[in-house]
Amino acid sequence: MREWIGQCRDCGRDIYCENGFLNGVVLEDQSLKCFPCAEQEDAGTGDSERQSAENGDSVQHSEREPD
Description:
Structural class: alpha+beta
Order of helices and strands: EEEEEHH
Shape: elongated
Strand content: 25-35%
Number of strands: 5
């Protein structure tokens, strides 16, 4: 069974639920992303990372040693 769920917020590709599995990602704001767009963001080429690089903003993560 294949049911249309919505469209990717980035590229507009249709996202379906196939046999109980969603062919995409639901974001915190309840919007949808297809797997290719979600993978691009995970690889560091998503919009938020690109905008940060253009603005010169950077986020650094470091592990804190236990006290």
